[in-house]
């Protein structure tokens, strides 16, 4: 964590090299700060997609709710537009079921007039869906790129739009697929927007257990959850404590965003540990290396104010470019067989 003394030192360092374009690195900064990189993306499409996913018409994309199914269709249509290959027998959507019992059932799908011990709360089985597409690479080794399309839905009559959480990661998955669609990467790239993250990470758990190309072929998960909202121009790459071999490719990233490492060391009490806080957990559990990109929690986190209007659009576009560079670097760096 930064200290005031460090900030003070940085301030004076900046005074003396004020006209230089490279800023001094922060303690846990990975990348070199640069205003230029050679990544070109369809920024209009990216912002349009996050805006639609976070719009009131999708009603907060609550797990197993109509707005969530609409979101799945919308993402599948985008995958089709990009002509991504399918890995499933019947299109882009991988359906799965989840059964809720007792207290959890009541929390997710409240029934009126429940008794004290939830004994009159019936079990409920609901259907979820991950949306999966692929770009075939030179090898069968797979990099899986994920974001979760579900959010909190409607609560107490309010729509929780979840623009940053995680329409940002979902729209990024589509844009990253668009970026790679006319290239032949070394690794096969699987793009998956997963369901039911907010409801217990069921979608990613199902995806890993039932991975259509065989989970033994997965060499890396790149997960994005909340990458569009930060006022300090900072993005975290979490996971290096567990997988230090993944550090080097990130040091070659050029971005105006400060890419920081951390939030993954259980012994570091100064920071929250994010190792299990999003869908990368499902990969990590199977000892599949992951890198998770995300921002610190902000004032709109899990509130009905997490709307398109409250994201940092420039930061978001730059974050997606940074993540694309990271994926390109991993595609070169990680050996295929
Ligand atoms: Zn999330």
Structure, explained:
The chain is globular. The N terminus is likely disordered. It has 337 residues and is an alpha/beta fold. It contains nine helices and twelve strands. The protein binds zinc ion. The site of zinc ion has 7 residues, from helix 5.
Helix and strand arrangement:
Blueprint lengths: L3 H13 L15 E2 L9 H11 L12 H16 L11 E8 L1 H7 L15 E12 L6 E7 L4 E3 L2 E3 L2 H18 L7 E7 L7 H8 L8 E7 L9 E5 L8 H5 L2 E2 L2 E4 L18 H5 L5 E5 L18 H21 L4
Parallel strand pairs: 1-10, 4-7, 4-8, 8-12, 9-11
Antiparallel strand pairs: 2-3, 3-7, 5-6, 9-12
Helix pairs in contact: 2-5
Apparent shape: globular
Helix content: 25-40%
Strand content: 15-25%
- Determine Rg (CA atoms, Å): 20 Å
Structural class: alpha/beta
For the structure shown, list the relevant keywords.
two-stranded parallel sheet, 9 helices, binds zinc ion, 337 residues, disordered N terminus, single chain, alpha/beta, 8-stranded mixed β-sheet
Summarize the structure.
This protein is α/β, with parallel strands linked by helices.
